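Input/output pair, single chain:
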Amino acid sequence: MIPPKLHIGLTGGIGCGKTTVANLFAERGATLVDTDLIAHAMTAPHGPAMAAIAQTFGAGFIAADGSLDRAAMRALVFTDPAAKQRLEAILHPMIRAEAERQALAASGLYVIFVVPLLIESGAWRNRVGRILAVDCLETTQVARVMARNGLTEAQVRAIMANQVSRAERLAAADDVIDNDDGMHALLPQVETLHALYLTISATM
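Output:
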């Protein structure tokens, strides 16, 4: 089996609908490699990153079941850039290695890496052939995340402030999907890009 050569990086701000869009591509034959899911597996009960996290941050960041205490870690890295860098130094190499393993094992028509912070990471930009940004209005982002996660508007905007701006994300993207108007508007955009990606794949 020859793994697909076309690698696409899918990204977008919080609440833009990355998972919905990624799943639509998967339904059309793409292989998804989701870095968030990989990170969760690494920090699950007794996951491969947990020993290093416990050694670096202490038992206070380990939940009773042996998984990462996400709320405690989120609170720490949100206010301490050095702690964020230490966590990333543990997780990012593991995530990259597992993402590469999954891509090499892929049997889909092309591979989509779902990477929320793709634009923020120079390494990811160089590892994909195209960047696909899922976009929506900032007011839409705020409303979706407030409804989904039960956060206040101030909390959502604080998360957004830690991500690249909408303008930066769009400037870095080769392809953009607008996700402001629901599934009826989403599907034709996915179909168009799926056809493009098949055409590119056929020439590689």
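The chain has two domains: 1-30+110-204, 43-107. The beta strands are 7-11, 31-34, 111-114, 130-135, 175-178.
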